[in-house]
Design goal:
It is a single chain. This protein is an alpha/beta fold and 585 residues long. The chain is 31% helix and 26% strand. The protein is built from 19 helices and 27 strands. Strands 8, 9, 12, 13, 16, 17, 18, 19, 20 and 21 form a ten-stranded mixed sheet that branches. Strands 1-2-3-4-5-7-6 form a seven-stranded mixed sheet, sandwiched between helices. The chain has a four-stranded parallel sheet with strand order 22-25-26-27, covered by helices on one side. Helix 13 packs across helix 15. The protein is globular and about 75 Å long.
Length: 585
C-alpha cells in the first residue's frame, strides 16, 4: 500500500545531478543545461533541495528557491515518470509553501506541458547564460482547486481578539464617539496603540464621490467622516501628528478632490498644526522586497506610511463584487501608488493584497459598520444600516468576524482565503476571542451581487471554473453590451451576428475545443498558455480596462464603455508598457 509522499529537506547530491543528466541528455545542450543549473545553485545560498520519499524510498526531487517562491527543478525517477507522480510532489510543496512559481527550460516541452496541466501558466520568457527560460506562475484559482482541504501553511500559535460595539440607531456624533471609546477600551484603550508624540496615519476608504450626492451622505460606500472625526478627537491629546492618507483607486488623480468633497479640510482646521492630509498616489516612495517574492519581488511603499509610528486602517463593511468583501485585507489596496495598483491586477491581485500586509502593517483596524453596503459594491450597492463598529489587530481575523456579521463565509473571499492559507491570520472561531455582543445578535445577511457572464447569439463565453474575480470584471463589461445595438435596436449589442463566431475563455479548466477559424479571446492568467492563438487579456484578474479593450475589438463601431475618467484611461497603456519594460530579461 502506497503511503503519502513526504518532502525532506536535504542537500545537492551527486545522485540528483546524475538523474538530471540522464533526464536532459536526449535534449540538445542537455548536459550544458545541467551544468548551468548546478553552478547557479552552488552560488545561491537560498536554494533548498527536497527529496521526495515514499515508503522510505526516494522517488524524486524538488529544487526550490524560497526567496522567490520558485521551483527551479522538478524531477521524478525514470521508472516513475507519470504526470500524477510529479503532481503529487507539487501538491506537497504547495501545502507548505502556498502559491509558487516555476522556471522551466523551453526545450523541455514535456515538463512544460505537465506543469500547464497542473495549473502553471507561462508568464514570460528570458535568457540566462544563453538558455531560454520560461517563468511560470501557478494560477491562483488552480491552486485553490488543487487543495483537498483549506489548511494554512502553518498552525496559528496565538489567539486573536476582535471587539464589537453597538452604536445607537440615532448615530449622533457624540454617540459614535462614545461607541468608539467603548470599542477601543475592549482592546486596552487608545493608549495601548498610540504613545505620546507619535505620528499616526489614518487610512480610510475614500474610493469615489458616490458616498455624498447633493450634500446628502449615502452610507456604506466610503468611511463615515463622523467616525474619522471622532477618532481624530481621541488621538489629538496623545499624538504628535495625525495624518489622514488615501490614494483613490478608480480615478487615481482625484484623491485631493475627494478629500474636499467629503469635508476633510474641515477636520484639518480643528488643529492645523497637528492634522494633515496626504494623497498617497502622489507621495514619494521607497522600494521594499516582498517576503518570498510571490508574484512580485518588490513593492514601492509611500514614505508617509513607511515613516509612520502607528497606522490605523478604517475600512467600510461592504460587499465587493469581485473580492467578495471589501474589509481590512482589501482596504490596503489604496495605499499603493498608481502604477503599483495597476501592476497588482497584471501580476495577481489576490496575492498582492496579501503581500501589502507584509510591508504596510496596520497596528489597529476599525471597521466602519455604521452603514454597510450590500449587493453590487464597492460603490454601486445598497446601503444597509448596521449600527456597529468592529476592531482588532489582525486583518484576517477581523475580516473573518465582519464577514460572518454580514452572513457570509470568510473563505468565500479570495484575498481573505489566500491570506488565511499563507499564515496572515486565522478565520476559525475557536482561535478568535470575540469581545462584545454575540455574533447572532448583530448578524444580518448581506445580499450578494448576481453575476451574469452569459454570452449572446454569436458571442460565446466558456467558463472553466473561473474565480469570482474574472467572473465579476467580465460581468461588468458584458453588462455594457446588454443594450440595444446601434446597428439594429431590435436586438441587444451582445446578440449582434458576426461573420466569425466569437469565443471568450476564462478559468483554468475550459475543455471546449478551440477553432482557429473563429475569433478567440483568452482571459487572464488561467488562459495565458493560449496567448499566442488569439487575443489575450493579461491579468489575474485582468483590469476592467483590459477587458473592455479586448471585448470591444469585436465592436469597432461602438464607443467603448467607461470605467474611469478619460484622463485616467489614457495612461493605462503607458503603465502596461512600463510594467513590461521592468520585467527581468
Amino acid at each position: 500500500m502506497k503511503r503519502e509522499i513526504v518532502l525532506r529537506e536535504g542537500i545537492m547530491t551527486d545522485g540528483l545531478i546524475e538523474e538530471m543528466q540522464n533526464y536532459y541528455r536526449p535534449l540538445p545542450k542537455g548536459r550544458d543545461y545541467v551544468k548551468f543549473r548546478q553552478e547557479r545553485w552552488r552560488e545561491k545560498e537560498s536554494i533548498v533541495v527536497y527529496s521526495a520519499e515514499q515508503n522510505g524510498e526516494t522517488i524524486g526531487w524538488v529544487v526550490y528557491d524560497p526567496g522567490k517562491s520558485t521551483v527551479e527543478e522538478l524531477l521524478v525517477k525514470p521508472d516513475l515518470v507519470q504526470p500524477e507522480t510529479a503532481w503529487q510532489l507539487l501538491d506537497e510543496l504547495v501545502k507548505q509553501e502556498s502559491l509558487v512559481a516555476a522556471e522551466t527550460w523551453q526545450e523541455d516541452k514535456a515538463k512544460q506541458s505537465a506543469m500547464i496541466e497542473y495549473g502553471f501558466r507561462p508568464v514570460r520568457h528570458f535568457l540566462q547564460e544563453g538558455f531560454s527560460i520560461t517563468k511560470m506562475e501557478l494560477s491562483t484559482q488552480a491552486y485553490f482547486r488543487r487543495l483537498k482541504e483549506y489548511k494554512p501553511v502553518k498552525e496559528y500559535s496565538t489567539r486573536e481578539r476582535v471587539a464589537l460595539e453597538k452604536v445607537p440607531g440615532s448615530q449622533e456624533p457624540g454617540e459614535i464617539k462614545a461607541a468608539l471609546v467603548g470599542l477601543l477600551d475592549k482592546l486596552g484603550g487608545i493608549e495601548r496603540f498610540v504613545k505620546p508624540g507619535q505620528t499616526v496615519v489614518l487610512k480610510p476608504n475614500i474610493v469615489s464621490e458616490h458616498g455624498l450626492k447633493d450634500g446628502i451622505p449615502k452610507g456604506g460606500i466610503v468611511t463615515d467622516i463622523r467616525l474619522v472625526r471622532a477618532l481624530v478627537e481621541l488621538l489629538l491629546p496623545l499624538a504628535g501628528k495625525v495624518i489622514i492618507a488615501e490614494g483613490a483607486s478608480i480615478n487615481r488623480s482625484a484623491t485631493t478632490k475627494l478629500f474636499e468633497h467629503y469635508g476633510y479640510p474641515e477636520i484639518v482646521k480643528t488643529a492645523p498644526d497637528k492634522i494633515s492630509l496626504v494623497d498617497l498616489n502622489a507621495d514619494e516612495t521607497v522600494e521594499k522586497p516582498v517576503p518570498g517574492g510571490k508574484r512580485m519581488l518588490a513593492r514601492k511603499i509611500p514614505v508617509t506610511l513607511e515613516e509612520a509610528d502607528v497606522i490605523i486602517s478604517l475600512p467600510v463593511m461592504k460587499i465587493h463584487f469581485a473580492a467578495g468583501v471589501s474589509l481590512a485585507v482589501k482596504n490596503l489596496q489604496g495605499t499603493m501608488p498608481p502604477l503599483e495598483k495597476y501592476m497588482t491586477h497584471f501580476f495577481g491581485l489576490w496575492q498582492n493584497l496579501v503581500n501589502i500586509h507584509h510591508l504596510v502593517k496596520p497596528d489597529l483596524i476599525i471597521i466602519d459598520g455604521l452603514y454597510g453596503q450590500e449587493d453590487f459594491g464597492p460603490i454601486s450597492g445598497t446601503p444597509k444600516k448596521m449600527d456597529l463598529l468592529i476592531a482588532g489587530t489582525n486583518p484576517v481575523a477581523v475580516d473573518s468576524i465582519a464577514t460572518r456579521v454580514m452572513g457570509l463565509d470568510p473563505l468565500s473571499s479570495p484575498p481573505v482565503l489566500l491570506g488565511y492559507l499563507q499564515g496572515l491570520g486565522p478565520v476559525e472561531l475557536d482561535l478568535i476571542d470575540i469581545i462584545g455582543p454575540p455574533l447572532d445578535e448583530v448578524t444580518r445577511k448581506f445580499r450578494e451581487p448576481e453575476l451574469d457572464i452569459s454570452g449572446g447569439e454569436s458571442f460565446h463565453v466558456h467558463d472553466g471554473e473561473a474565480c469570482r474575480g474574472c467572473r465579476a470584471y467580465l460581468h461588468f463589461v458584458l453588462s455594457k453590451l446588454r443594450r440595444p445595438d446601434p446597428k439594429d435596436p431590435s436586438r441587444l449589442l451582445i446578440d449582434r451576428p458576426f461573420n466569425r463566431e466569437v469565443n471568450l475563455f476564462l478559468g483554468p479548466d475550459t475543455r471546449a475545443n478551440i477553432n482557429p477559424e473563429e475569433a478567440n479571446i483568452f482571459m487572464g492568467m488561467c488562459q495565458q498558455h493560449r496567448a499566442d492563438v488569439g487575443i489575450h487579456l493579461p491579468g489575474c484578474p485582468p483590469h476592467t480596462e483590459v477587458i473592455i479593450d479586448g471585448v470591444y475589438r469585436m465592436f469597432p463601431d461602438v464607443e467603448k464603455a467607461k470605467y474611469a475618467d478619460k484622463s485616467e484611461e489614457a495612461v493605462l497603456g503607458e503603465m502596461l508598457q512600463q510594467i513590461l519594460a521592468s520585467l527581468e530579461v
